[in-house]
Predict the 3D structure of the following.
Amino acid sequence: MCGIVGYVGPRTAAPILLDGLQRLEYRGYDSAGIAILTPERKIEIKKTQGRLSVLLDALQGSTPPGYLGLGHTRWATHGEPNEINAHPHADCDGRLVVVHNGIIENYGSLREGLRAKGHHFTSETDTEVLAHLIEEEYRGHQGPDEFVTAVRRALKQARGAYALAAFCAEEPELLVGARLFSPMVVGLGSGENYLASDIPALLPYTRQALIVEDGEIVALDREGASIWNLEGVAISREPFHIGWDLEAAEKGGYPHFMLKEIYEEPQVIANALRGRLDGERVLLPEVDKLDLAKIQKAYIVACGTSHYAGLVGKRLIEEFARLPAESIIASEFRYSNPVLDQNTLVILISQSGETADTLAAFRLAKESGAPTLVVANVLGSSITRGADAVLYLQAGPEICVVATKTYLAMLAVLTLLALDLGQRRGLLAHSQIAPILQELRDLSAKVDRVLDGAEAIAEIARRYADRKNFFFIGRGWDYPSALEGALKLKEISYLHAEGYPAGELKHGPIALLDPEVPVMALATPGPLYEKIISNIQEVKARRAKVLAVAAEGDKEITHHADEVLWIPRTLEPLSPILSAVPLQLFAYYVARERGCDIDKPRNLAKSVTVE
Ligand code: F6R
């Protein structure tokens, strides 16, 4: 995600920037940095690897003087989280600086073009390309309008997502910002103005703000802010008043990080796909590093929610790549004496990249000479070091202890991986992939539709929040969703919930059913639909209440279920992505009804670094 803050005004900029960064640290904490224009018109950059506290220690209270500046706290996407890759980034002569939040998809080709023109790069980041692009466009020009125009021209060449802020040594009272798919807000003060990724950074200084919209560029001086689109057409916008307190602002106005992160899911899916779909092909250059000709089998190893993503991944890989795959819980895998050799691909999934059991499985795979492919969210985390290939979720930090948005990102990335493997194995013609890719592109809008129905789910949750035991059942593609739905509910509401393959219910657990035990049945369209309806009948015969996750337009289900949580129709292999959302919302609203500590459930930690 990354956090950006900028200041122009009569006050010393550094303390304001550092304070803003502290309030944005939830957006990333791999490295932090500030750039200040000194009274001698020199740009001074201070940056360090690690949390903001490391930067504060390094500064020891001595910050560069100056009234114009930028700050950044990083959540790495391109390039290791070290000091060189930390923002701000400068051009060749150190006459302009840039901070950025997002991903520039075409940074490779842009960098090659700039190198050919003599630009010298010091970092591995996509952001540095923007600094040099602006330098190229600004060369030979002068004046505030020219700098804004240079930023605008540079951005027209960039593909991807960005919130960007920049200033140059020639313009001591000009801060430029721009936005495309990453947030940016302007704070309006009296004789001073601010730029930030999010409202918390502005709160101590002003309550008047302007939202910068996608595709817009903004110029701030001490007196005010002007906005244009990327064609240079001026846009007028009314400021709004910020009514939130600090806590509400950090959560984007949501009562909990969990809900905020669920509402980020449409964007998270778009980010997971970003740069990885090219017309009718999946592009995962990371997979080039594996010798696929040798691979005869895949193990998918993970814990908790990541394991449930792995269960879906197994099916996706078998479906699209026809490669035998097995998904195993890491703490079992490591002690199961698995048959591992150079023909067995071990895929490890971990949001944090620090889970002890998954790391142990990773080491075991490496010692056995098996190729490793890691799916992770945290760049540079332990599990990504030494892996043969790494696919990042690009989901940004997840603050709530329980996983929500990263589960969807895992499913999206595993779908891409399975399609990529299928392509490479020559199994998928373009005409087969095209409708799947189209559906993937449509998923963000479909998740949005589920979110539109959140109030109805909250109402259902209210009616069932006093029950003590739940079953979640599903078959085929729906089975991992049942497991994940049950896990979400038990983690945050402390209710007993059991996920079960629907066909297995009658082999024992059905003895537990009575009118007090609700059963959540996953009943998405597909060849097993009639089978799950039969299982629902078995449940109803024990007078248990049935809640169903079903696809819009399914009239049949309304005859069998007491309550329906609706999702839009999609392709069967993609249905776990949509099914997860109402189940997360259901768990959330049950827990809220029960007054639980949703973001920090008892006994749980975000990253389990012990065995
Ligand atoms: C559940 C949850 C955990 C994690 C598990 C693995 O909501 O968050 O079950 O999925 O601890 O964590 P990572 O993915 O970081 O290895």
